[in-house]
Structure formats: structure tokens, C-alpha cells
Amino acid sequence: MSAPAKLPRWAELGLLPAINLVAALLLSGVVVRILGENPWSAFKLLASGAFGSQDSIGYTLYYATNFIFTGLAVAVAYHAGLFNIGAEGQAYIGGLGTGLVCLWLGAAPFWVVFPLAVLAGAVFGAAWAFIPAWLQARRGSHIVITTIMFNFIASALMTYLLVNVLIKPGQQSPESREFAPGAFMPPIHELLGRVGIAFTATPFNFAFVLALVAAALVWLFIWRTRWGYALRVAGENAAAAVYAGISPPRITIGAMLLSGALAGGLGLNELMGAQHRLLLDFPGGAGFVGIAVALMGRNHPVGIVLAAVLFGALYQGGSQLSFDMPKINRDMVVVIQGLVILLCGAMENLFRGPLAALLRRRDVP
Question: N or C: which end of the chain has fewer CB within 10 A?
């Protein structure tokens, strides 16, 4: 099999993903037309539903926050040569750690609860990633299989805890009692209001800032530290890593610990920022969306943030689209998301060859 055609860095990171995205939207337009709706009107509704008002923007960025955390989790493991399918379960268990701190210390001031909740989410998420990492590093069990299995185990564990242990007394719904106000993540509209900027009340909260900080720290770690360099070497060529004195098993465990810790950040946004209680299935599939976000973002923090905003827009704009165009229900919105994932992820190299040939003819450096 021939190697993929080489592209300039700017085309690799910017132009090729844009072409793939346009192709996905064109195919989505064909689907919309088949359903008897006007594609242009549908896309305008989608964009308006995602960015047409403060309310829409708030919800778009709220969803994007979850995808940034899980996308970063997938990307860190990917750079170590690992395909972490378990971000969903790691986010689930990380959220459990965050939720336990909020239930235990919620009556304390926010400045006490906040750092402990962040730490607990990271530790619980990392701990859930440790076992698959150890099995891969020491026993040769494939990380894809074990992380998928641990997603199901995490779901079963949370169901047991919320039905039998953490459920609020006297209620039927499997969820905990509400956190005390000291465990509420500050909403963005309140923070902006303190500086005189009016913004509509939405679940959009300070966790988005934390996600951006996490993206910056991941960039620094992977591309500006010797540990990040060792991680990338082990991911590219394990034999070369051993020759250079780098231990691939140690890299595997370390990368998965960091990956799980990042996934655990989802609970800060979802539990402290929006739900204010522990409840079933709060990740809502964000761990799996994180795989698509990381692929589309080329496993680079900047690309991941942009891809997360795109998928946040598809989530929020899709709700508006299905409301105003009944023929395009939520299932069809999922089809549109799937086409974006297909063209920008699994088939990302479809247009690479023609684009490389075009740039060569035009002598573009």
C-alpha cells in the first residue's frame, strides 16, 4: 500500500479538514433533499440554531466543553500509539469522583470544593484508565478491547450505586440529592454580569475555561517537554523508543493515566455546571464523540477545540432543525453527524491525493 501523499502543513491542518467538512455537508444536503426539504434552508436553520442568539451560543459552547475534555483524552493516548475507546467510562467514573466530593463537601465554600472536585475527577478517571493500561503494558491485552469492556462496567457500577447507594431517599428516579450551592460551577452569564456584560442564562459555565486551559497544558506537555517527546517517540516506533532508553510499557501506563484524568474533567461541566446532582448516563455519549473530535482535530489541541465547537453546533443546531423541519428528526441529525465523522475521520484521506496534485501543479510550498 502506498504512503499517503504529502501536503504542506497549512494544507494538512487547515485546507484538507475544510474540504472534508464541505464534502460532508454536501452529502448531508443530498439527504435533506431526498427527505423533501430545502438543503439551504436546513443549513441556515442549523447555523441559526447554533450561533443565532446568545442562548444558542451558550448551549453550543456548553456541549463543546464536554467534547474538548474527551477529545483531548483520546488525543493524548493516540500520540502514545494507543486507541482509547474508554473515554466514556473514564468520564463516568471521573464524574463519580467529582460528584462524591460535591455531595460530601457541598456545604463548604466553592473555593474549598472546587480544587478537590477537580482533583477527584482526575484521580477517579485516571484510576479507571489504569487497569486497561496495565493489562496492555504488562499482559498484552489490547487496549481497544479492555477500554470498551470498561465502559460497560462503569455503566453497571453507576447504575448500582445510584439505585442502591447514592439515590436520594424517598424518590424513584435513580439520581442523588442536589448539590449544595457551594458545589455549583459559576455560570458564564453571572461572571460576565460582574463586569457589566449581559448574557442570557444557559448551562454554559466556567468549565469551558478549564477545558481551554487543559488544551493549552496538553499542547505544552506533548510538544514542549521531554516527557511529551518520549510519549510521541514511543507512539511512532516502540523499537526506536527502547533503543533510546524509553520504556514503552511505562509510556502506555502514563499516557492512559493522563487520558483518563482529562476525560474525568467532563463531570465538572456536566455535574457541577449543569445538573447539580449525580444521575445516570450524564456523559451522554460525549466519550465516543471525543474520538471523532480528536480525529477531525488531527489530535492537536487547537484542532480539537475547533472540532468540539463544530460538534457542539451540530448538537445544538440539530435540535432547532428537528423542531422547525419535522421531516428531519433527531435520527436524521445523527446521520448528518455521522457523515461529518465519516468524511473527516475514517475517510479523511479521500481528497488528499487530488489536493496534493493540485498544489504541486500550482507550485504551492
Answer: N
C-alpha 46: how far from its chain's center? 21
List, for residues 197-255, the tens digit of each pLDDT value. 999 999 999 999 999 999 999 999 999 999 999 999 999 999 999 999 999 999 999 99
For the chain, how far is it from start to end, CA to CA, in angstroms? 26
For residues 76 and 222, the answer to whether their CB atoms sit within 8 Å is yes
Residue 183 CA to residue 112 CA, distance in Å, equals 9
Whether the predicted pLDDT of 364 surpasses 70: no
Cα 59 to chain centroid distance, Å, stands at: 15
Domains of the chain, residue spans: 66-301
From CA 256, how far away is CA 150, in angstroms rounded?
Answer: 13
**Can you read off the three cell numbers belonging to residue 342?**
465519516
Instruction: Give pTM, 2 decimals.
Output: 0.93
SS3 279: strand
Number of H helices, E strands in the chain: 17, 0
**CA geometry: angle 222, 223, 225, nearest 5 deg:** 75
Q: What pLDDT does residue 11 have?
A: 81
C-alpha 154/C-alpha 93 separation (Å) is 7
Neighbours of 197 (CB within 10 A): 10
CB distance 149 to 163 below 8 Å:
no
The rounded Cα 316 to chain-centroid distance in angstroms is 15
The C-alpha cell at 138 is 504488562
| CA distances to 104, 107, 142 from 58, in Å | 29, 28, 39
Q: What is the DSSP string of 189-243?
A: HHHHHTTT------S-BTHHHHHHHHHHHHHHHHHHSHHHHHHHHHHH-HHHHHH
pLDDT band at 24 (very low <50, low <70, confident <90, very high): confident
Could you give the CA distance from residue 211 to residue 357 in angstroms, rounded to a whole number?
38
Angstrom CA distances, 145 to 185, 275, 286, 341, 350, stand at 35, 31, 19, 22, 28
Q: Distance between CA 289 and CA 63 in Å, rounded? A: 11
